[in-house]
Amino acid sequence: GSDHKSRSRAPSYLTFDEIGGQDRAKRELQEALDFLIRYEDIQRLGIRPLKGILLTGPPGTGKTLMAKAAAHYTNSIFMAASGSEFVEMYVGVGASRIRDLFKAARAQAVKENKNSAIVFIDEIDVIGGKRDGGQHREYDQTLNQLLTEMDGIHTTETPRVLIMAATNRKEMLDPALLRPGRFDRHIEVDLPDKKGRVHILNIHAKNKPLAPEANLESIAQETFHFSGAQLESVMNEAAIYAMRDESENIQQRHLSLAVDKVMLGEKTDRESTK
Ligand code: ATP
């Protein structure tokens, strides 16, 4: 429908190299994908196909990036949606949107001459929360439709569809989603450690003029508990401070100010939502 404008249909050029830290998560995901693309062996040995990969972890840690990189890695088309897009007042609308999403993904793969499609559903908990037997019939239908789509995926069909989903509330999910043959592979995408933070800062410093004295190591040291998204903000805010200063490059004090700003910004956000 016309309300799917926000959906990303662009080919994915993002690679795993552009994701900082997350070494373990990247390795686990690549292993799963390597296995996935051995279609012939999988069929020959009668292995149950991998249909769903669940990415779990706090907001802004790179779950969407992982799904995009997975599409690039497997030469699949990438189609993204968010759980909240399927929440509608009228019973059945969410379910038909799910149907449309999978149809569109298959059609796009055919159009681009690709063998596979990755459908990424962010905030899966919005539609995949535990069913409560009648209270929220609309949500139930949407979830049931998703389960139907998953159950309908066969190894022999082309294009092959892999569903990736992200949540930061895995414990809220309906157990039916986690059963074998559905989202049975879980990958944790956690907050980065210090080494990961250095890596992420470097990735986002690539297109920016850093002063020779700027020390991203020490910025990583100060940003314990920052997500990748927050670290990206730090680099961006630092560049803005440099511009305000009419400075030709980003200096250590711009970076420090940016750390404070992002830290403070988060705090006020949290307070205002309470
Ligand atoms: P949410 O759950 O809130 O949707 P997410 O885990 O999907 O978050 P992304 O959307 O992948 O997070 O990340 C948001 C942005 O933050 C990215 O576009 C990127 O700029 C930056 N970012 C997050 N994690 C990383 C990372 N590991 N490496 C590099 N950049 C990152």
UniProtKB/TrEMBL annotation:
Q: What is its EC number?
A: 3.4.24.-
Q: What EC class is this?
A: hydrolase
Q: Which UniProt keywords apply?
A: ATP-binding, Hydrolase, Membrane, Metal-binding, Metalloprotease, Nucleotide-binding, Protease, Transmembrane, Transmembrane helix, Zinc
Residues of the AAA+ ATPase domain: 49-193
Listed GO molecular functions?
A: metallopeptidase activity
User: Origin, by domain of life?
Assistant: Bacteria
> What cofactor is needed?
Zn(2+)
Family the entry assigns: In the C-terminal section; belongs to the peptidase M41 family. Belongs to the AAA ATPase family.
What protein name is recorded for this chain? ATP-dependent zinc metalloprotease FtsH
**Gene this chain is encoded by:** ftsH_2
What residues of the intact protein does this structure contain?
A: 53 to 326 of 498
